Amino acid sequence: MKKIHNFSAGPCILPQEVFQKSSESIIDFKNSGLSLIEISHRSKDFVDVMEKARSLVKDILNIPSTHDVLFLQGGASLGFLMAAYNLMAENKTGGYLVTGAWAKKAAKEASFMGNSVIVGSSEDKNFNYIPKNLNIENNLDYLHVTSNNTIFGTQIKEFYNGNIPLACDMSSDIFSRKIDVSNFDLIYAGAQKNMGPAGTTLYIFNKKILGNSSVPIPTMLDLKTHFDKDSMFNTPPVFAVYASMLTLEWLKNNGGLNVIEKQNSKKANLLYNEIDRSSLFKGTANLEDRSTMNVTFTLENKDLNEHFNNMLANANINGLKGHRSVGGFRASMYNALPLESVEVLVDVMKNLETKKG
Ligand SMILES: *Cc1c(COP(=O)(O)O)cnc(C)c1O
């Protein structure tokens, strides 16, 4: 098979062994003569997978016993709605830090249930920074933030740590660094950015929020429904949960968050250093808010775009096209992307400068 350096923003690269093992499970799951996708989700074999996946999340993130973990469906986009439904208390008011397109969508969903208040926004500069001075009134039932802005390449380095319950869309940087889960009442993340294939969404929440909402919640959108049934209220996305479990196993076996956090910084530093050193490239995100997961940059001379794109293709580099709202390039460097792929990219950038700089 051709070796590709996959910088795709999502769905993203996963460890090769996860592709291997998960594909084997489709043909013959645990030597049972049956496929993972044809057995009952109530069978012991699958219940074990779900329990293992949930406990790996708790283990890797060092989740306190006040919190629990579910693997649901609907993507992070349904998470926007789930967050509002489950966290709206007396005031039916959520505060939103609008740091990108996803954050803005989250804020919009809250307005279906109650009030959605913008506590800070970086839209004035096309979301190239994280606002630091938030306008937080004490009538907020919760504060919603987006830890990593996948499209714009910014990342929150220090989370709000006050009295208001904190909710976070962590889709594109969960498991990339250590976090203090006790600081959050709700975390949710679509699997396909750093954990597994599309199809499942991880929810981590403080159990005290269950049943506390003041808005009537449809059954499927109530976290309590799923908590009461151990993440098996209805048929779970069995393949996505299994492949996520394998990725989490891989992460744990490779040293967990301590190791991956260092590896991710190393990859990010390598690329940012080249962007800053090169006469041709320019980073688009504010320095102190730069994401370690999604690195956004442009070529100052647009006439070189085509040439650079050809060089990338020749080096088997995939997925570097920037999002249309930012333009330029975006290198997404999720956990499974090896350092070697970043080295190949940096070499191509250096070669471009030698030829055209
Ligand atoms: C990709 C992404 C989403 C959307 O996820 P879906 O699972 O496709 O709904 C939401 N938030 C962030 C931060 C993302 O990166």
Characteristics of this structure?
single chain, 357 residues, alpha/beta, Aspartate Aminotransferase, domain 2, Aspartate Aminotransferase, domain 1, 2 domains, 7-stranded mixed beta sheet, 3-stranded antiparallel beta sheet, 9 helices, 14 strands, binds pyridoxal-5'-phosphate
Q: What's the SSE blueprint?
A:
Layout: E1 5-6, H1 16-27, H2 44-61, E2 67-72, H3 75-87, E3 93-98, H4 101-110, E4 115-121, E5 142-146, E6 148-149, E7 154-155, E8 166-169, E9 186-190, E10 201-206, H5 223-228, H6 238-253, H7 256-277, E11 281-283, E12 294-299, H8 305-314, E13 317-318, E14 329-332, H9 339-356
Parallel strand pairs: 1-13, 3-4, 3-5, 5-8, 8-9
Antiparallel strand pairs: 2-10, 6-7, 9-10, 11-12, 12-14
This protein binds pyridoxal-5'-phosphate.
